[in-house]
Amino acid sequence: MPLLYPLVLASALFGIGLYGVLARRNAVMMLLGVELMLNAVNLNLVAFDAWFADVVHSGQVLTLFTITLAAAEIGLGLAIILALFRALRTVDVDEVGR
Amino acid sequence: MTLTEIVFLVFAVIAVGSALLSMTSGQLVHAALWLVVTLGAVAGCFVLMTAEFVAWVQVLVYVGSVVVLVIFALMLTRQPSGARSAEVTGNRWVAAVLGAAAAIGLGATMVAGFGGEQIEGRRIGTAGSIGDALFNDWVLPFEILSGVLLAALIGAIVISRSGSDR
Amino acid sequence: MSRRWIYVALTAALATAASIWAVPRLDEPGWFAYVGQGGAGDGPPLPSLSPDLFLYPVSAQVVLLAVGVGLLVQIYSTAYLGHHPRYRSYALIIILFLVGMIAVVGTTNLWVLLVGWEVMGLCSYLLIGHEWQTAEARAGAAKAFLVTRVADLGLLLAILVIGETYGTYDIVGAQIASSQDGVASSTAIGLLVLVAVVGKSAQFPLQTWLPDAMPGPTPITALIHAATMVAAGVYLAARLFPFYADSTVVLTAMAVVAGITMLMGALFALVQTDLKRALAWSTVSQLAFMFAAIAAGDPEAGTDHLISHGVFKALLFLGCGCLMHAVGSSALAAMGGLRRSMPATFWTMSIGFAALAGVIPTVGFFTKDSVLHAIEQSAGEDGGLATGTTYVLLGVALVTSFVTAAYATRLWLRAFFGPVPDGRQEHHGHEAPRAMIGPLVVLAVATFALSIGQPFHLGIGVVGTVIAAGGIAVVVWSWRGGSTLEWTTRPLTAELGLDRPFTSWAPAFARGVSRTVVDLDRDGVDVYPRAGAGVAGLTSRALELVQTRNVQRYATVIAVGVLVLVVAAVIWT
To answer: Hey, which residues does B118 pair with through a beta bridge?
Structure first.
């Protein structure tokens, strides 16, 4: 399988995720965009790991770590968004900035 | 073109399509569900790239728990104006240009750098081999990561609680 | 009572010490001729405050005049002001004033002289403002202080110029230097000295402070504003005469000032309705006489007239104080017919008025005679005033003599003769206590005693006597003719509006200047800080466009930045 397939897929997902982060009004949706970008990274890591046939599976292990960190990140991020919502009754980043 | 490649391309198309729908959907819950589809398709891609253990983790952690978390958060922060909060900002065109530029730039780089390389699939990322690598070579980062997770957990609890105290 | 005499005793001690010091110097030959031992440069090269006390014969005379009048005034004040709640400060300031006067007269160090000069100005200010509960006294004190301060700048600059020119701040040293190396910078020094003495001696155009100083206690007027401090200006001009004697510009300027002032002061005195104010203008006029003598190149005649005037004007002011004590006012309208009820005051003041008018054989006649003689003699001399100027000055002096005799007679008649004012009893007024009469008698005696040994100039003496007699005769004649001698000629009673520069023009000018400064400060200097603030404001407004508090904008900016960097890195590597 050509290495380019997952790499190009990852690039596309990254761009879409970036658009989500920058364009969505809802803070939760911004977090989802971040998740998408992280997944693009994961895809890259796994693809290179498979291509390199690494003995210690660096790419896949790091993907695991990324997934874990993403979970931690989304947990914290959602907690912050909840706190924000309690304080301001909104999660709209435009209104929060005002 | 092998069967693997065809399946991979199908997954890839599904992933990209659902990601686009997720990021443009007006309904927040729909967006979250489309994200589930994307993440599942990516998990399929992982399997096709011989990373089966990572694929299962992806399904378990992302599709299973993260998305559930997100849906809970969406429900908890449901605003009176409802759909309006799903809208995009005035920033959307800049964001679209930036996203497209990033995708094309990255893709071009990849094409330029790794065009013609093949994934052979010589080492399968089974649970056993990943476990070996994790607990032989990656123990220290693994333990540190557990500390990070714990900190994030405590932080999340503290932030949520202090919000409710007020 | 005894407390008050403590101050008299203090003053007496000071006077005694000064006399022991001064009396032996009276007989020294030469006027300011003696210049001591040693050569140029022996004096302190830098400003120093060593006393450098040295008395010339004329200095000794002035010191004796100051302490003598000071002692008499102190005695007089025990009765006149003894019950005043602030008597103690009053008496002590008199002593301080005398010390300042002795410093001015007795030192050869210009800086000590300046200190004494300023101490006198301070005492003058404090004593004019002695009755500071009245607005009039406060205003008069402030005016006197400000006007004389302005003039004092002239003295400071004169001292600096003398020091720069001769390399020493010692008068004797500078005199030696000038006799060896020649006189230099005489016009600058002379004009600066002129500024200083014009302010201190209330000459035109800085004359207005002296009449406004009259709210001060009358004994103080007698001491400071008639006999000594204002005369110190004359003394200083005479003392520094050698430094500017060869400058025709300075002498002409002084002659012009003196001529204007003497006639103006005499005319103002002629129309005053207030005895004390009339005497103040008379003082201004008489001081101008002294300056006329100095301008004519005979400072000795000037200082002689200083001594004589100090005595008889102190007498007149103290007598005026007695009259005020008796009738409770210094207005001429409140007086009249006091001849019988206050005989001692009447006789002593008569002698004073006679001296003012220049009646032989009072000292006033002889010294006025000397002044007129000096002016006459200077005509045609080289190096002094131009002959024409001299004759004009002589003419003005003779006219002033006439007016002086006239106003002296008028004041005398208005105060002591004529009808008793309405609403007052026939024998209104009462004789002053002995502590007040005593000094009057002493001064009256001195008015005659000082005549002994005075030079007499036949020609000008006869002319002067005739003119004075004419002035007296005109007034007596019109008095006999039933005139009340109430001459209220409008421009003269308004004092020609000469006060206006000080009361409206100067404040307006100062206000204009300050407004200009404010404008300059606001529109000129402040432009820079305000421009800085404006630039900072604009910058912050520009930065505010970035600082939107919108996380997404930040993220966008970061993304753009990263992209630009990546593209740049790709292109240039």
So the answer is: A2
Cα–Cα nearest to C357, from C223, C467, C224: C467
Please tell me the distance from the alpha carbon of residue C138 to that of residue C141, in angstroms, as a whole number.
5
In chain A, which residue's Cα lies nearest the Cα of C551?
Answer: A93
Judged against a pLDDT cut of 90, whether residue C507 lies above it is answered with no
Of C552, C553, C566, the CB nearest to B105: C566
pTM recorded for the entire structure: 0.61
Contacts of C309 (CB under 8 A, 6+ apart): C226, C227, C231, C283, C286, C287, C289, C290, C364, C367
Alpha-carbon gap, residue C157 to C139, rounded angstroms: 28
Q: Considering the domain boundaries, does residue B142 fall inside one? A: yes
Q: Which domain holds residue B147?
A: 3-80+125-164
Q: What's the rounded mean pLDDT across residues C122-151? A: 82
Supply the pLDDT for residue C43: 46
Q: Can you tell me the distance from the alpha carbon of B79 to that of A93, in angstroms, rounded to the nearest whole number?
A: 13
In a domain, B101, yes or no: no
Going from N- to C-terminal start, the domains of chain C cover 1-245, 247-493, 526-572
Residue written as token pair 């509960």? C133
Q: Structurally, how many domains does chain B consist of?
A: 1
User: ω into residue C361 within 30 of 0, thus cis?
Assistant: yes
Task: Look at residue C32 in the predicted model and tell me its pLDDT.
Answer: 59
Indicate whether B35 pLDDT > 50: yes
Complex ipTM > 0.95: no
Q: Inform me whether the pLDDT recorded for C500 exceeds 70.
A: no
| The two structure tokens encoding residue A68 | 């874990």
In a domain, residue B95? The reply is: no
Confidence of residue C39 (pLDDT cuts 50, 70, 90): very low
Q: What angle do CA C125, C127, C128 make, to 5 degrees?
A: 65
Instruction: Considering only the C-alpha atoms of chain C, give the largest distance between any 2 of them, rounded to a whole number of Å.
Output: 123
- The H-or-E segment that residue C292 falls in is helix C275-295
Residue C355 · residue C365 · CB < 8 Å: yes
Q: How far apart are CA C123 and CA C224, in angstroms?
A: 9
All residues of chain B having their beta carbon less than 8 Å from the beta carbon of residue C556 are 91, 94-95, 98
pLDDT tens digits, A82-98: 888 888 877 777 777 66
Q: What are the chain B neighbours of A50 within 8 Å (beta carbons)?
A: 49-51, 119-121, 123, 125
Q: Specify the CATH number for the domain of residue B9.
A: 1.20.120.1200
Task: Report the pLDDT value the prediction gives residue C534, as an integer from 0 to 100.
Answer: 92
Sign, CA torsion C232/C233/C236/C238: negative
Q: Is residue B139 part of a domain?
A: yes
Name the closest residue on chain C to residue A15, using Cα atoms. C559
More confident call, B28 vs C44: B28
CB contact (8 A) between residue A24 and residue B88:
yes
* H, E, C per residue of C65-99: HHHHHHHHHHHHHHHHCCCCCCHHHHHHHHHHHHH
Tokens of residue B5, six digits: 């490649």
In order of their start, the domains of chain A are 4-97 (1.10.287.3510)
CB C215 within 8 A of CB C298: no
Instruction: Examine the pLDDT at C101 and tell me if it is beyond 80.
Output: yes
Residues with Cβ within 8 Å of residue C97, at least 6 apart in sequence? C70, C119, C120, C123, C124, C127, C223, C224, C228, C229
Beta-carbon separation of B101 and C553 below 8 A: no
